[in-house]
Amino acid sequence: MSEQSSAPFFEILTSDPASQARTGRIVTAHSVIETPVFMPVGTRGTVKALTQEMLEALDARIILGNTYHLFLRPGHELVAELGGLHQFISWPRSILTDSGGFQVFSLGELRKIKEEGVEFRSHLDGSKKFISPEISMQIQHALGSDIVMAFDECTPYPATPTEARKSLELTARWAQRSRAEFDRLKTSDVTPAFLFGIIQGSVYHDLRQQSLEQLLEVGFEGYAIGGLSVGEEKQMMYDTTEFIAPLMPVGKPRYLMGVGTPADLVESVARGVDMFDCVMPTRNARNGQVFTARGKLNVRNAKYAKDTNPLDAECRCAVCHRYSRAYIRHLYLNDEILASILCSYHNIAFYLDLMRQIRQAIALGEFTTFRTGFLSQYKSATNPNGNFASDP
Amino acid sequence: MSEQSSAPFFEILTSDPASQARTGRIVTAHSVIETPVFMPVGTRGTVKALTQEMLEALDARIILGNTYHLFLRPGHELVAELGGLHQFISWPRSILTDSGGFQVFSLGELRKIKEEGVEFRSHLDGSKKFISPEISMQIQHALGSDIVMAFDECTPYPATPTEARKSLELTARWAQRSRAEFDRLKTSDVTPAFLFGIIQGSVYHDLRQQSLEQLLEVGFEGYAIGGLSVGEEKQMMYDTTEFIAPLMPVGKPRYLMGVGTPADLVESVARGVDMFDCVMPTRNARNGQVFTARGKLNVRNAKYAKDTNPLDAECRCAVCHRYSRAYIRHLYLNDEILASILCSYHNIAFYLDLMRQIRQAIALGEFTTFRTGFLSQYKSATNPNGNFASDP
């Protein structure tokens, strides 16, 4: 049994004088997490195509699990019975679980939103299900998550100000109920968990501020920016983040959900964000798209047929150390599983290494230089719009 | 450049007094291989779902590549241009390539056998191709294989004695042409390779003996038993091996192609076989079938839903050390790539560990005890008939 340690849940280590960027440290019962951090997405209790050993070798300190998917299969009761998600998947470090909201709202026709919660039909077998703020807390509690997300309504894009306001009001009431249920469950906990609220308000600054204020009244251990990267223009995402992040409590972690490209990470860190998750590195890997310091490339391209270079000449990961583009291209053309393994490994290595570089640059007071240099070299590869909050 | 080392290509270390079993050592330019050995099948230059790092961790000393598949894609010229198969796939240890014969003959309607060689249509795009003994040697030479197989006609099963005789006569002529072309190519080699002949003759002992004698006249560095595990009764396979293996040269490696189950390995070692290959451990892994000391199990079975035991309680592989049946079952039900990775890893670990146990038992003079004990514990799980010579 771990007792509440003396280390605070979150502390800031360095603040960049020239931007909102900062480095910090999150401490959970399962790991110490240096921020800004990118969290690989392990939708169903596996970061696709990677072993837990590989994630450890890559020094991932926290991964994400999707409440919606784990609720449907294998079910949170089963996971709890087997000792919780950490033990079930054999992952000793931290886990953040989302609330299930994003996936449920993505079901469109299959779901019905009420004050009490959301009725929906499983995408697996059509069976009727129900998730409320209380149930979402119970599921995440059963999973044994380190960082629990409040159950929110992810406001669709586009939304009129009226729609967005109605949606954030619901999110505020659900945030309160999430907090109450989380605290009720927490009394029996041996391992501390932490609850984050989610700010909605679409692209309207006044509504974002209103949503934040409502959450602050409830009080959370961290705050997330939800409802972005859902189809809006990239500049709107940057602007909304730039507006709201500095208003969020300085001493609490700030999490931009479902974002993003390497350029998005750098730009959002500059605007004050500490935490990210996105399926892009793993999903794109399975299609042969890999990230490099010089931008994206698709290794299936015929021009790599005889290319004996590594995926990224500047990368020091185990895949770039050993395998050539020509070989990985050959694996893709033959639908070999190893193609997905190698590109997923490299892409996660690239993302985690980028975050290490970001943290180092901030710590050395050189973040502005780093940001300019990285973006000009990366050529601001554009992000195909759309949120990537789970990897089913 | 490696010069012909003083170590012989093959030497016997121990002979079991109570059976035909023996331990030995094969030395190639790329690794030292303890025999009896099981060679994981890397059809297209990848042992499916495993990284080369994993194969090294499992201490695989030699893997198999399929000439037919590599000839079609990416093509042996490309592989040669990129430095050979070892370099292309980044595998520093030994590689055995088959002759392409087995896959070509499996094409049925799509192929036409002539004295000169075999015309066939690619299963990938229907294009017309031709492989002769000379071309097979050229392909395997371009790949840079350590152990090259002569181009044979794999006699179908069932075959009348007349058909089988006609087939082995062709194989004998092709063996001679394979030897001549191999030797011609060899003069320019910096890295020594070794050529094996393949005995045909179906299930007829006199024909097997005749085929062997024809090959002995040509002379090879090793001899393989082909045309078994192609649909005949298991006992016929054992009987044919039992008859022919002791007639094969004592001082040369004996290779039983495309075999088999764990029980087949133990039984065939007892009959004097030194080398094996089979796709069973990797192919079955991708369907959830895993090998354990107590027999096979399918981890997708509902009874493993809450089973926190490892796949095989007696296995010390990294997968059994870390992951539970319940988790791996969950991965299968969700078509997660990690399911194939973990079960392939375990199954290859099981096969390689079985061979280690076999070698140790022979060396200690306890092979008969081991054989009895293993088979009674393994419950002689039956081999679904059919040869498994590639893993496409």
Characteristic key phrases:
alpha/beta, 392 residues, homodimer, TIM Barrel, 8-stranded parallel sheet, 3-stranded antiparallel sheet, 16 strands
Account of the 3D structure:
- Two copies of one chain form a homodimer.
- Chain A has 15 helices and 16 strands.
- In chain A, the strands form four sheets. Chain A has an eight-stranded parallel β-sheet. Chain A has a three-stranded antiparallel β-sheet with strand order 1-2-3.
- Chain A folds into two domains: 10-279, TIM Barrel (Alpha-Beta Barrel); 285-378, no CATH class.
- In chain A, α7 (161-186) packs parallel to α8, α10 runs parallel beside α14 and α13 (325-333) packs across α14.
- In chain A, β2 (22-27) and β3 form a beta hairpin.
- The first copy, chain A, is α/β, with parallel strands linked by helices and 392 residues long.
- Chains A and B meet through α13 and α14 of A and α13 and α14 of B.
Any chance you could write out the topology, listing elements then pairs?
2 copies of one chain form a homodimer.
Chain A: E1 10-15, E2 22-27, E3 32-35, E4 37-39, H1 52-57, E5 62-65, H2 67-72, H3 76-81, H4 85-89, E6 94-97, H5 101-106, E7 111-113, E8 118-121, E9 128-131, H6 133-143, E10 147-149, H7 161-186, E11 194-199, H8 205-218, E12 222-225, H9 234-244, E13 254-256, H10 262-270, E14 275-277, H11 280-286, E15 289-292, E16 295-298, H12 318-322, H13 325-333, H14 337-363, H15 367-378
Parallel strand pairs in A: 4-14, 5-6, 6-10, 10-11, 11-12, 12-13, 13-14
Antiparallel strand pairs in A: 1-2, 2-3, 7-8, 8-9, 15-16
Helix pairs in contact in A: 6-7, 7-8, 10-14, 10-15, 11-14, 13-14, 14-15
